[in-house]
Amino acid sequence: MARRPRRQPTPLVQDRPEWRQLRHPFAPHALFSDDEIAGIHAMALRLLEELGLSILLKEARDILAIGGASVEEDMVFIGRDMVEAAIASAPASFRLCCANPLRDLQMENGALLFGPGSGCPNASDRIHGRRPGTQADFENAVRLTQSLDVLHTLGPCCEPQDIPVHLRHYVLMQSQLTLSDKFPFIYGRGRAQVEDGFAMIRTALDLDEETFLNNAWVETVVNTNSPRLIDRPMAQALIDFARAGQVVVITPFCLSGAMAPITVAGALVLQHAEALGALVLNQLACPGAPAVIGGFGSNVDMKSGAPAFGTPEHVQMSIGTGQLARHVGLPWRGAAGAASNTADMQAAGETHMSLWGNLMANAGMVKHAAGWLEGGLTFGFEKFINDVEALQTIATLCTQPDTSADSLGWDALNEVAPGGHFFATAQTMNRYETAFYQPLVADLSNHGAWEKNGSLRSDERATAIWQQILKDFTPPPGSTERAARLEPFIARRRAEGGAPILD
C-alpha cells in the first residue's frame, strides 16, 4: 500500500492575496436608534454654529471665512449649510494607489483595512526591552507590516528618536518606499515636510504631476485637539493634502471624561462636530478631495486620568461613530488599542474587544490594529505578532464558507457510523491540509507536548516569529530602483538643511 506523502509544514508567513482587500462579513450593529443618531448629528451642527471651533492657522480661517463662516479672532462658526456642502462634495468611495498595483485598495463603507499601531515614541521587545524608538526599530516595523497581507496600510509605528525632527521625515518616507509597496503615510507637520513627502513619492514611483494629483498615493492623520481646537500643522495638512488630491484621515481623539463629555452620547456629539468642521475646511480647500472621517473615541480611568481602551465605552463609541458616518454617507476610520504596559492578557483582551467593536461597527480603516501598547506610547514587537493572529482570524471570517454539495458532507455522514469519527473519511482526507485556519503564534498542542517544547508563552513564541520574519525578509520588487531615484533628492534636501516642523 502506498504511503501517504508527509504533510509539509505550513510556511510561517503565507501569501494570502485574498486578504489584501477585505470587506466586512457582518451587517453593522446599531447602538442608537435612527432618531437618536439624527439628534446627535443635529447637536453637532448646533455646536459648530453656536460654539464654534478654535482654528489657529490664519490661512485656514481665511478659507473658511470666504466659504461663509463667521470668524471672530481665532474662533470660527460654521453654518450647517457649509457642512452639508462639504458632505456632498466629499467622495463616498475612492481608490488608494500603491507602488504595487496588486495592493491598491478601495476605501468606502463596507471595506475593512487594517493598519499597524502608529505614533509610538518607544519600542519594546523581549530581547532589548523598552527603549526610545530608533531608525532600526521603525525599519523593522515596516518590514513586518510589509510581510503580512492582513495589514493593508503603513504608518509611523515607532518614531526614530535617533534622527533629528527636521530630517526624520526623510527616513520615514525612504523606509516606506523602499522596504514596502503598501499604502504609505506622511505626518502633517508643516508645509515644507509635507511637500518633501509628496516629492519623494513622485520621485520614487516616477510619477508625473498630473498622475500624482489625480490619484490618492498617501494619507495623513489629522488629530483635532479636543475639545474644539485645530492647531496650525493640522489645519495646514487639511489644506495641503486636499490641494494635492491626497487622503486626510480626520481623527478627533475624544476621551470621555477628559477631552470630551463623560457620556458616550456627549462625546460623540463633540467628536462628530470636530470631524465635520475639519471636513469643511478640507473640502473648501479642494472640493472632492478624498477624506475619511470618524475618530478615536474611548474613555479615561477616572481614578488616574489615564486613557483606557477595549472598554465597553470604547466599543459603544465605535458603534456610534459608524452609525454617524453612515448617516452622512462617508467612509470612516476607527481604531483598536491597548492601555496595558506589556504584551499580556490585559493587552490581548483590550485589543480583541476594540477590534470586535470596529468589526461590529463596520469601520473602514482600523488604525493601531497591531503592536500598540501603553495607549500609544510603545510599539511592541511581540504584541504585534499576537495581534496579527487576531487580524488573520478576522480576515478568515471575511471569507464566505463553502456551501457546495461536497461541503454539505452527505457522503461523509453516510460513511461514519453512530459513535464513530470523521478523521479518515474521504472528505476529511481531501480537505484536511487546507480545511482550517493555521495559527501564526497560537500553540494548539496538549500540555505534555507544550512542556516538551519548552512551556513557552505566546509572547515568547512571538519573539521567535518576528525574528524569523525579519531574517527571511526580501524587499519588494522595484525597491532598488526606487531607492536609487530617491538618493539624490534626499542628499540635496539634507544639504539644504532639511525641513523644520510647524508648531
UniProtKB/TrEMBL annotation:
GO biological process terms held by the UniProt record = methanogenesis; methylation
Q: Which UniProt keywords apply?
A: Methyltransferase, Transferase
Q: Any idea of its EC number?
A: 2.1.1.-
Q: Domain of life of the organism in this record?
A: Bacteria
Record-annotated membrane-spanning stretches: none
Q: Write one Pfam family the protein is assigned to.
A: MTTB
Q: What class of enzyme is it?
A: transferase
Query: Quick one: signal sequence residues?
Result: none
Molecular function per GO = methyltransferase activity
Family named by the database record: Belongs to the trimethylamine methyltransferase family.
- Its name, as the record gives it, is Methyltransferase
Protein source organism: Shimia aestuarii
Question: Upper taxonomic classification of the species?
Answer: Bacteria, Pseudomonadati, Pseudomonadota, Alphaproteobacteria, Rhodobacterales
